[in-house]
Write a structure and sequence with these properties.
Elements: H1 13-16, E1 25-26, H2 33-43, H3 47-62, E2 84-85, H4 100-109, H5 111-118, E3 121-126, E4 129-135, H6 137-140, E5 145-148, H7 149-154, H8 158-164, H9 175-183, E6 188-192, E7 202-207, E8 214-215, E9 218-223, E10 228-236, E11 244-246, E12 249-254, E13 259-267, E14 272-275, E15 277-282, E16 287-294, E17 299-302, E18 305-308, E19 314-323, E20 328-337, E21 343-352, E22 357-366, E23 373-383, E24 389-398, E25 403-413, H10 416-424, H11 429-440, H12 442-445, H13 450-464
Parallel strand pairs: 3-7, 6-9, 7-10, 8-11, 9-12, 10-13, 11-14, 12-15, 13-16, 14-17, 15-18, 16-19, 17-20, 18-20, 19-21, 20-22, 21-23, 22-24, 23-25
Antiparallel strand pairs: 1-2, 3-4, 5-6
Helix pairs in contact: 2-3, 3-9, 10-11, 11-13
């Protein structure tokens, strides 16, 4: 009998290829004040940002590593390179001007094709720097600003950056927010003027190529009153036998009666520690929609947070998490209801197999003045085998009587009867299980643009190959 294939034997060439950068510029491993100053000098930071970085480093050294989640003992900051960039450090708007090996990386990931087919603008980051950024003329003509954060920091939007940068996620929030504040590099800045509706999505794609490196991009999006935007974030990295770190930060400001959808497909390699922080603040009548697919990384701490500040503001959070062999993915979301008549709906799916651990944490806070608020949480977990683990940890903090709160959780395994039925119709056991899992995650794929729904289903099928035996 032919031996069943394990996941690590499957061809992951779409994501696992890499290029050796012999002439790349990088700082020394570790985290010191001199390294932070070196990064700041490399960036030509304004004085306030240099001071901000050094203060964040002080905060980082004062805060303890969190003890309540998965172990990150395998992550040693003394071994992490916090800044690395290609020798040719130009960010260009013409794809043909991107250095050949980097361009080939993104070509293989399908980024230029996606831009031509279905995106209003694209930013591509390779290690610590953006190498390409472009936005369609018709979108720019609407007054939409989509550029790298550092260009905005030195240009006409400098005051706007200073007003908003790490105000939603202050460095004092947790240890890795402080780390981000000290060594952040790259990322995108988006500003959508009042009343402007961007009909097709913008996308940023983050590729970490260097072994033993960290990526610390900062995404800042401001959607002004009555505006509408869909922003897509993609991430991947090749697999190495040393730890890599991702500690990015996303800050989203959703104005009065504005709408923002933020979609993410994360396919980090399984040597990655993903310690990312995402947060949104929503004004009166505004809406934030999170759509998230998490498939990669060795350990994840990821809990996008929504602050429903204004009356009648809304939040929808839809996600799927897939934890395979050697993965411990601790994910979830937090919603804080501040305004009156606010509403939130959380709908998640988590899948674990081959001993993978998936933990979902939700926190809903109803403030003292959030009268008339409503929140519903639905989380379902599927274990593909008997050696995997799935946990649900909900928290409700209700501080007013006039509200409507509900929570529903289900944990189960794939039904042998369902697998047998599909096999009786000619499917292999492997394909039957993959089909069941894809259907289980269907709520997320329906929310993604077609190209990304296809990518998510391909990732699920890839993970499911060899899940038996």
């Amino acid at each position: 009998m032919k031996e069943k294939t394990k996941v690590e034997d499957i061809d992951r060439s779409l994501y696992d290829f890499r290029f050796e950068q012999k002439d790349a510029y990088r700082v020394q491993e570790g985290l010191t004040a001199d390294i932070v100053r070196q990064i700041s000098q490399e960036k030509n930071d304004p004085q306030w940002m240099r001071d901000f970085r050094l203060k964040s480093l002080e905060t980082y050294n004062e805060i303890e590593v969190p003890q309540w989640g998965p172990s990150i003992e395998g992550l040693n900051m003394d071994d992490i390179v916090t800044y690395v960039r290609p020798k040719d450090n130009r960010m260009v708007k013409d794809w043909d001007e991107v250095p050949a090996d980097i361009k080939d990386t993104f070509e293989r990931l399908g980024i230029p094709q996606a831009e031509r087919k279905s995106l209003a603008g694209v930013g591509a980051q390779f290690d610590s720097e953006l190498v390409y950024h472009n936005v369609r003329d018709e979108v720019a003509a609407q007054g939409v600003v989509y550029t790298d954060l550092e260009s905005a920091l030195h240009g006409e939007y400098a005051d706007m950056i200073q007003e908003h940068f790490m105000k939603l996620v202050p460095p004092t929030d947790h240890k890795f927010a402080a780390l981000h504040g000290a060594v952040w590099s790259g990322g995108s800045f988006v500003y959508v003027p009042p009343g402007v509706k961007v009909e097709i999505p913008l996308q940023s794609y983050f590729r970490l190529n260097e072994p033993g490196a960290g990526q610390f991009e900062h995404t800042l999006i401001i959607v002004d009153e009555g505006a509408d935007l869909h922003f897509i974030e993609g991430c991947s990295a090749p697999k190495y036998n040393v730890a890599n770190l991702h500690a990015g930060c996303v800050e989203l400001f959703v104005g009065k009666n504005a709408k923002l959808r933020y979609s993410t497909i994360e396919n980090w390699s399984k040597n990655m520690y993903n310690l990312n922080t995402k947060r949104a603040r929503v004004e009166e009548g505004g809406k934030i929609e999170w759509v998230s697919g998490s498939f990669g990384s060795h350990v994840s701490y990821l809990y996008p947070m929504s602050i429903l500040k204004g009356d009648n503001s809304r939040c929808e959070f839809t996600s799927v998490t897939f934890a395979g062999k050697g993965q411990n993915l601790d994910t979830g979301t937090k919603v804080v209801h501040v305004g009156k008549d606010t509403s939130s709906y959380i709908n998640t799916r988590s899948i674990s197999k081959d001993g993978g651990i998936s933990t979902f944490r939700s926190a809903v806070v109803i403030g003292e003045k959030a009268n008339g608020s409503k929140s519903a949480v639905s989380c379902e977990s599927l274990m593909v085998d008997g050696i995997s683990r799935s946990d649900t940890i909900p928290a409700m903090d209700i501080r007013c009587d006039d509200c409507d709160i509900g929570h529903e959780a289900k944990i189960g395994r794939i039904s042998d009867d369902t697998v047998f039925y599909l096999m009786s119709r000619g499917m292999s056991e492997e394909d039957a299980r993959a089909l069941i899992v894809s259907g289980f995650a269907d709520n997320v794929s329906k929310e993604l643009p077609l190209e990304y729904a296809v990518e998510m289903n391909n990732l699920i099928n890839l993970e499911m190959k060899g899940s038996i035996g």
